Every structure is written in C-alpha cells, then in structure tokens.
Amino acid sequence: MAAASLTQGDDADLAHIIQLQLEEVEQAIRAAAGKGKQPAGSQTDQQLSLDLFLRELQDTQNFAADCRMARSMQRAVLDDGDALAQSQSEERAAEDQKASVSLGNGEIEPSRAASSPESLAEDDEFLQKLACIYITGIDHGKNDDGKYADDETETETETDHQPESSAWAIRRRQKRRRRQQCEACTEPKHFAELAAAPCGHKYCRQCLTHLFHDAMIDESLFPPRCCKQPIPLEKNRLFLDAVVVQQFRNKALEFSTPRRTYCYNPGCATFIPPANHKNDVAACDGCGCHTCITCKKASHRGDCPDDEQLGQTLQLARERGWQRCQNCWGMVELNTGCNHMT
C-alpha cells in the first residue's frame, strides 16, 4: 500500500475496515481450529492461508498507525517549529552569556541541561525520514544535469541571524547530503533509506536486515553491533520488516534466558519461553508437545530421574524416615500423632 494513498481523511475509514477484517479472520481461525483431525502441530491449507492473511492485515494496521504518527509529528513540527526555534535560540543565548560571565570570573563553565546540537539534529533527521517514507515518498529521479535532484540540500531558518553557540552553528551549517553511502555495501542510498548506528555509520535496509539475521543465527554476534556498540532495535525498527522485528524479539528473549528449554520433538526443537513453563513441564506452542524442563526429554509422570537435587532430598528423606504426601508429593515429617495421613 503506497504511502500517498493513506491520506488524512482516510485514516478513520481505513482503521475501521482493517479492524472489521481482523475480527472476521480471527473468528474464521477459531472456527477452523475446531475442525479436522490433523496431527498435533500441523495445519490445514485453510488454516495456513488464514494465518498468512492475518499477518498481512496486522502489517497493514501497523503501517497505517506509523503513517498517522508521522503526519502527527510533522504537523507538530510545522505548527510549533517557529516557536521552538525562537525558544531554543533565546535559551542558547542566555546560556552563552552565563558561560561568558563564569569564564570571565575564572569559574568552570556550568554544564548545560538543554539538548545538544547533535541530538537535535538527529531528531530533525528522524522526522524528515518519517516524512519521506510515509508522506511525501522518496524521489530517486535525476535532473537534467544527471545528478539527483535531492542530492544535497542546505536550509536556512529565521533564526540563522540570531545569537547561537558556535557548536550549534557549525553543526547546523553542515550540508546534509540526501544521498549517502551504506557502510556495508557502499551503495549510495537516499538518506531516508539508511539506518544510523550509534557510532554514526549508516546501513541500508538490506544490510541492516542481514546484520540482524546474522545475530539471530550466531549468538556470538548478538546483539548486532557496529564499532563494538550495540545497534538498538527500537530506534531502527522503521527499517526492518515486521516479521524480522518479531523474530528478533523472540531471539532476544531466548538468548537472555538461563537454562533454556527447547521442544524435545526433533522436528520442532523450538525454544519454549519461561511463560510456557508450569510444574516443571514446558508446553510448546509450535507443535503442542510437552517437554520436561529438567531432563529436556518428553514430559513424564512422577519425579524426573535426572533431577539431582530431588534425588539428594529423597535420599535424606529415606535416612530420616520422612514420607511423601500422595497428593502434592511434598515431604512430611511426623512430630506427633499416628502413622497415617488423611
């Protein structure tokens, strides 16, 4: 779905249509789940097609929400931009004056709580990326000179001639090249198609996806890094497919879990998150099998023979004459009364 087709007037209608379709598909999935006698963990063609349609609807819903957010942020910047620029200019002028007085008195320059020029520039660039992706679109055309029309731009605002710190002035007056180079493939890309790592290097969508895929396959590469600095998911989710984002979040949970449990079924072997553990048994959502979290084999009745701590406790119970409750299997020590339990 093109960004241009999601106009502001269509937002409410589109959200309503998607919500109705989601409800219909979810109802159809529930109805299909109660039919048929296929093996546990397998799906019919109808169920597979419904699941695929559900994911497409969810992706469309997320995309529409991102478009609304981008337009809202752009409107806020346009409506309040002049006031914010004036306020920031006055604040910088006041801080520069205080710093000059402090230095003139031989004092150490006070720290500044205001946003740095770098962070403000990053926020501005992020807003421009949102606008290009979700509102105006990205122009890859060339002009009559054979150069890209948006290759290089430099903007001036009404605050250009007002007092400002030298650091801000240097940062603001640097030209921003609209086409920049991907650090991995070295291909020139529109700046809105490049994700920024904390170190400042840029990656295109394809190369960033490869970085995240490699990190999910090789745990030694997790999390994905550039210049030894982790690349955060949330700040770059804009450049990753929704499926990749969900897979990465699942892997983050898996790699951060101690003593992980995987489905004992060789045809599945899926990681089972702690939320699916109950009474030392892990239930797999993928195939429906149940795995013992102690021996990592199929779940079984009674005590797990591989539970060393339980074995030591039972040995101590035998030595001291303890009995086990036949209901909860907890240890019971007789202090007073007769030798039976009710």
Automatic annotation (TrEMBL):
Domain RING-type: start-end pairs: 178-342
GO molecular function, one term: ubiquitin protein ligase activity
Keywords per UniProt: Metal-binding, Repeat, Transferase, Ubl conjugation pathway, Zinc, Zinc-finger
Region feature Disordered, mapped onto this chain: 81-120, 143-169
Enzyme Commission (EC) number: 2.3.2.31
Keyword Repeat recorded: yes
Reactions this protein catalyses: [E2 ubiquitin-conjugating enzyme]-S-ubiquitinyl-L-cysteine + [acceptor protein]-L-lysine = [E2 ubiquitin-conjugating enzyme]-L-cysteine + [acceptor protein]-N(6)-ubiquitinyl-L-lysine
Designated name of the protein: RBR-type E3 ubiquitin transferase
